[in-house]
């Protein structure tokens, strides 16, 4: 059984203890050290070499954002931002993700008296998946260095490989739906700003986030994208050249109106059995019978299996599916289950996702 060392960084001794107790519930995780501020965090990352770090944002002497940037520049290790401030200031969270944080989590969600066991399990699974990916990448990097004498042969093989076995031409899709979770905001940033103004299909994005985060996310993307980006609202009519980010805390459905237009229906839906709000499955299930073979779905990095059932619906109606390859995923969970179920038309790293999308739309 692989084990992963966690460095817990927080200026509160109470919080350090609470977070440590949660982490120690999983036999694959152990506390390799604690730090009270950013200065200590940097020193202990260099000395203890943890597999993953949980980092508070607001701390004395050196805050978490400053420490994060220093760690990413000088001794990269996966960092999960763990703070209450992110609940009040999503902008801080997005800046942390842009600076290299692997993920973020709200302390209050973990420390509620009535916290559900599945919430704790999901948090611990995220830590393990991120740490595992980082360790695997480090091993692969060392192997590449040790096998550097074969580089020319490898490059020749790559050049001789076909780009993929899927024939695709533009104009085959009328709607693009993108689903993602852990690592999603950064992945979206490498895709959404690249769409040109003349993009002739609407785009719906389902990103697993806490309530209150999707509206600032949409506003942030609206400032850097060629297309209009907004948080989806109940009753919105899908229009080409618009990106709709499904609101956290609700489920997003698609309805075909009598005039042929497609409207978004946003509901709380307590009857829907899903831990995810929004759920990729729910939205794909409602979109597939409307768009049929004209639906393109993209599954990016993320924990768990949300999207699998929805992709089954997409294929039932002959739609197309692109999934992100393991090598670029922060967590290879959601794309993996879709790929291993044989539902993906093509699997490519993040750097190739946009080009694949444009071959269909």
From TrEMBL:
CDD domains: CheB_Rec, REC_CheB-like. Its EC number is 3.1.1.61, 3.5.1.44. Residues 168-361 form the CheB-type methylesterase domain. It comes from the Bacteria. Its main location: cytoplasm. May play the central regulatory role in sporulation. It may be an element of the effector pathway responsible for the activation of sporulation genes in response to nutritional stress. Spo0A may act in concert with spo0H (a sigma factor) to control the expression of some genes that are critical to the sporulation process. The modification 4-aspartylphosphate is found at residue 56. It catalyses: [protein]-L-glutamate 5-O-methyl ester + H2O = L-glutamyl-[protein] + methanol + H(+); L-glutaminyl-[protein] + H2O = L-glutamyl-[protein] + NH4(+). HAMAP family: CheB_chemtxs. Contains a C-terminal catalytic domain, and an N-terminal region which modulates catalytic activity. It is an enzyme of class 3 (hydrolase). GO terms for cellular component: cytoplasm. Residues 5-122 form the Response regulatory domain. GO terms for biological process: chemotaxis. One of its GO terms (molecular function) is protein-glutamate methylesterase activity. This is Protein-glutamate methylesterase/protein-glutamine glutaminase. PANTHER family: PROTEIN-GLUTAMATE METHYLESTERASE/PROTEIN-GLUTAMINE GLUTAMINASE, PROTEIN-GLUTAMATE METHYLESTERASE_PROTEIN-GLUTAMINE GLUTAMINASE 1. PROSITE patterns: CHEB, RESPONSE_REGULATORY. Keywords: Chemotaxis, Cytoplasm, Hydrolase, Phosphoprotein. Belongs to the CheB family. The active site is at 181, 208, 306. It holds the Pfam family CheB_methylest. Phosphorylated by CheA. Phosphorylation of the N-terminal regulatory domain activates the methylesterase activity. The keyword Hydrolase applies. SUPFAM superfamilies: CheY-like, Methylesterase CheB, C-terminal domain. It is found in: Cytoplasm. It comes from Acetivibrio mesophilus.
